[in-house]
Amino acid sequence: MKAVVFKGPFDVAVENVPDPTLEQPNDAIIRITTSNICGSDLHPYEGRAPLDHGMVLGHENMGVVEDVGPGVDRIDVGDRVSVPFNISCGTCRNCTAGWTNACLRANPTGRPTAGYGYPMMGPYWGGQAEYLRVPWADFNLLKLPAGREHENAFTMLSDIFPTGYHGAELARVAPGDTVAVYGAGPVGLMAAHSAMIRGASQVFIVDKEPDRLELAERYGVTAVNFADTDPTEVITDATDGTGVDCGIEAVGYQAHDATGQEHPELVMDKLVEVVQSTGRIGVVGVYLPQDPGAATEGAQQGRIGFDYGSVFDKNIQLGHGQCPVKRYNRQLRDLIIRGRAQPELIVSHELSLDEAPQAYDQFDKRVDGWTKVLLHPAA
Ligand SMILES: NC(=O)c1ccc[n+]([C@@H]2O[C@H](COP(=O)([O-])OP(=O)(O)OC[C@H]3O[C@@H](n4cnc5c(N)ncnc54)[C@H](O)[C@@H]3O)[C@@H](O)[C@H]2O)c1
Ligand SMILES: [Zn+2]
Ligand SMILES: [Zn+2]
Question: How far is residue 91's CA from residue 139's CA, in Å, rounded to a whole number?
Answer without folding.
Answer: 9
